[in-house]
Amino acid sequence: MPRLISVKNLRNLRTSTTFTATENQTTFSFTYNVGYVDVYINGVKLASSEFTASNGTSIVISSGCRSGDSVEFIGYVKL
Asked: What's the pTM?
């Protein structure tokens, strides 16, 4: 039987955090479920080949960020 989710609980299905990067920063601390994370730099979604997110607590971006870049992580709950 499918698992039902109420509308009021939808906000609990994801967490997000936004960082302001320092020059050449590649590593960020963020808790997530492996395989259930999206990464955005200045509003542009990165392909999964452009970052490593394999341990559930940190994300490493392949190319160093510029100082002041907005880096957002969105982690999703496994259903």
From this structure: 0.85
